[in-house]
Amino acid sequence: MSNILNEDNADCQPWAFPQVNRSSNLGANAGVSGKRSDKRQEQDAYKAGFARGLADGMASSQSELNHRLSRLDEAILFISKPIDAVEEHVEQELAGLAIEIARQILRREIKLDSGHVVAVVREAIASLPISTEPMSVHLNPVDALCVKEALSLSDTDHSYRIIEDPVVSRGGCRIMSATSQIDATMEKQVAAISARIFGGERDADSN
Fold it and tell me: Could you give the CA distance from residue 135 to residue 182 in angstroms, rounded to a whole number?
């Protein structure tokens, strides 16, 4: 039997553990680590690029928004100018209408009640400073008679002198003294009414 074993094992070699190349394993590990590092750098670069792109996009969007808002402000300003012009025109028309209405009301009052001009004269005289100076009361000829009768005055009165003045419109008067003058004409009354309505002084025309 020993001869059989010897013959069978004639070509056999002793078995030993294979040699392991440690340097190749280390190189492989280094390669894997390098790939991971490259991938991380690529991800970091992608994130940085994304953040930069997002910031640039937001800045561009903000710039476009500001531009559109500026254009919108210009459009509103352009539209508001005609509106202001219309409002000013309407205000002028309303002022003219109010003055005309006031004038018509006063004229109607004068026709219906001759005592209106008497009240105007009395108020004008009362507004003058107290003085012994003689005064002249200028009235429309139609109103002069009514005032004389109401105030019991005559042309020879030393305090007041009634002067018939066709220039003065009916319903008003103009009082003058050496040191004072009161304009209570119809036109001034209308102007005063207009000033109270619109909060400012407006000159009424003399039509």
Answer: 11
In this structure, of 38-47, 68-77, 109-118, the range with the lowest mean pLDDT score is: 68-77
pLDDT tens digits, 176-189: 888 888 888 888 87
Residue whose structure tokens are 């070699």: 13
pLDDT in tens, 143-166: 888 888 777 654 445 577 889 999
Domain ranges of the chain: 96-198
Chain position carrying tokens 């008497």:
118
* 3-state SS class at 9: coil
Report the half-sphere exposure of 54 (CA within 13 A, side-chain side).
6
Domain 96-198 is of which CATH architecture? 2-Layer Sandwich (3.30)
Beta partners for residue 182, in sequence order:
175
Report the distance separating Cα 142 and Cα 57, nearest Å.
86
Q: How far apart are CA 199 and CA 175, in angstroms?
A: 27
